[in-house]
Amino acid sequence: VKIGVPENYDGIFPWYLTKYSDLVLTGDDEGIFGVDAQFLYAIKPLDREKQPSYSLQTFTVEVFVIDKNDNVPTFIEESMRGSVQLGLLKIPFMRVEAVDRDDRNTAHAELRFSMMEQTPRIPSSQMFFIDSITGEVSLTEEGASTLDPEMCGRYKLSVMVKDMAGRTNAFFTSGIVTVEVTGNTWASPDPVRLQENLPGPYPIPISQVKWSGSQAAYSLDGEFPEMLFTISREGVIYLNAPLDRETQDQFHISIVVERPDGRQIAKPVELRVMVGDANDNRPTFPQAQYHTVVKELAARTEILTVQAADNDDPKTDNVRIFYRLVGQIPESPRALFRVDRDSGVISVQADSMEGTAPQYTLTITAEDAKLNSSCTVVVTVQDENNNPPVFSQHEYGPFHIPEDALVGTTVTSVLARDADVRGGDSWQVDYRLESGNEEEVFTLVTDRQTNEVSLILSKVLDFERESEYILVLSAQNQVPLVRGRYGPLSTATVSIYVDDVNEGPVLSQSHYEVTVREGEEPGRVIATIRGYDPDSHPIYSLQGDTKKYFSIGKYSGELKTVQALDREENSTYTMEVIAVDGNSSLSASTLVTVQILDVNDNSPVLVGDYSWKYLCTPRWEDQALVLASRDSDGPQHGGRLNFSLRSDATVRRNWKLTPINTHTNLSLNIPNLPPEVYMVPFTISDSSSPPRSTFINLPCPCNVRGNCKIAAKPLQGMPTIQSAVGLLLGTFAVIIILIVIFVRLSYQNPKEPSKTSQERVPLKISI
User: Fold this and answer.
1) Fewer beta carbons within 10 angstroms: which end of the chain, N or C?
2) Following DSSP, what letter does each residue of 478-543 receive, concatenated?
């Protein structure tokens, strides 16, 4: 059993703590506790700091003394001192410590530190900062940047420690911290100049730094290869490999100082390393081979400039370059090119390149004080158009071509020769028909590999229209002439004769579509088939007109009807018209489609047998005769048919016609008519204007027999035993009678139903 008891109780004693049955007290060596009537009591106050708990037995009662905040926190050291180095960053340089004898697991011993005052308050009143929880003292941002031992070498800081996590009811203690400001040797070392490619041995010490304060570790940072520079624990900086000025001509090395725990102490300082030049780079051209072009008529002109680069120090003579022409292929003629020694400009020295090789390869060297390199320059001599194309003869032909030659036929091929370099722009020839081809019957196609031109037929020939063509053909280069001009040798005449060929007839249309109204008088011209034959007159005939409804003029091509046409018999006729050459078997054909236009020449009629149908009287609900009709004309005239009763008051009172979709229902318009056969007069009209009509006088029997009898009403309430037995006996009797009837009927021939028997079946609406 554990109980908690607050320390320093100042009430009435004995102080009753708790009640237990059968309690016998042992373990109270100091005589603080007692037992009275099963009550455990204390006779004086308890002090947690003196003894935090007591164990009492027969069964264990552990009395925990509950802590009160009755102790003031105190600093561990009466004289608190520290030192701060010049250049130190905003990191702790010392720590103040305090203790509180109260329970550490409570807020009574939860300590908070604060800075009360700084003396002197120069150059700022906020030079230092104390961490409220850890008690670590560090410079502020402002303090780290303005700290100066010459201005102030010692500061006194008034600090306070509170318990209760710094609450207003806390106990507190204040103290003085003395901070000495010390100088430091931490500064950027002097720049270092090192020659590239030093012979070694490596590593070579090149500089040193020192942090004069607490223990420190050094490291290097910057843009240089790993392990090229290193620093020892003593701050000595080493070079570990040769330097190359052309790769990097200077280094900015950042030197970092840190505490052993990795926290940076001060701002990094910088070491600048400059690399001196040695003539270790040969001049190089940006490309191994150059290409340039010089016109064949060019005279003493610059054609190209080559420039080499030297990666040595541009401030030294190591980068001074000279150029030389050391080779020319082919070698003849000599002294054709030269290169300027200082600028690298290559120029032509001859008055003209005409008659030289089409291409030259030059070797150029670039040299500095001791090293050199070379490149090649390929000079292409560009042909210029100084030679016009000429034909080998002034006239070509005559050439014969039949008038039925296919479009695309080659008539002839000719060539105008050019003395310029084959394949170049100056050698390419463009041909043109200057005259004789005004109707564009011919086209020219040039072979760019050979300069040969082909004369191609581009339109159908007609001997009767044109039997001879005289074409004037000219040849010119694609680029302008730079010397000379085009003369008579660049022009030729081509003669072409067209040979006559017997031609077949040609029809003006491949398909004729004709419309004719039905019922028109025979002999009318409905179409004229037009054909053309330059050699003779075509002869026309019909094929496919099996019923001989049409005829065609043998020479006129006029298509006529032989008899009146009926659209209801056939609405479309298709036949073939053949035109034959009068001098040969050549022919042409075309299709003719004749569409027969509808005329309202048919009246609507009633469809179906209604002699066996009847209506019940009195009137049955939803019972009607379904009347069907038909019109042989097309939809324009007979699309929708209308039923109407005769304009008679008795008829319209007794009967009713109701359109239902494509049919019409005939039904009683009054509840009851005497049973007999009635004549119902009505008219069926089509939808044409004016309409055609048919008058109908339809017999309609009205019956009360057979199925028109009124059905029995259902019984009210539950059936009795006597009625149920009667129903069963009656059902058995009906079944026996039906069996006898079916057996007798199976031995007889079936008969057609009579009109009388048909009238007994009531008509149902069919929609």
Assistant:
1) C
2) SS--SSS---GGGEEEEEEEEEP-----EES-SEEEEEEETTPPTT-EEEE--EE-SSS--EEEEE
Name the average pLDDT for the chain. 85
Say whether both 587 and 613 belong to one domain.
no
Decide if 531 contacts 541 (C-beta within 8 A).
no
- The whole-angstrom separation of Cα 247 and Cα 208 is 25
Looking up tokens 């007839």, which residue turns up? 505
Task: Work out the pLDDT band at 535, boundaries 50, 70, 90.
Answer: low
Token pair belonging to 614: 């009847």
Q: Decide: pTM greater than 0.70.
A: no
| Confidence bin at 32 (pLDDT 50/70/90) | confident
For residues 373 and 435, state if they share a domain.
no
Q: What type of residue sits at position 40? A: L
Number of domains in the chain: 7
Q: What single string gives the DSSP state of each residue in 279-337?
A: S----B-SSSEEEEEEETT--S-EEEE---B--S-TTSGGG--EEEEEEEES-PSTTSE
Q: What integer is the mean pLDDT of 309-323?
A: 86
Q: Are residues 165 and 122 in the same domain?
A: yes
Which residues span the domain enclosing 26?
2-64
Report if residue 192 sits inside a domain. Answer: yes
For the residues of 248-295, what is the DSSP string, one character each? -SEEEEEEEEE-TTS-B-B--EEEEEEEE--S----B-SSSEEEEEEE
The CATH number of the domain where 660 resides is what? 2.60.40.60
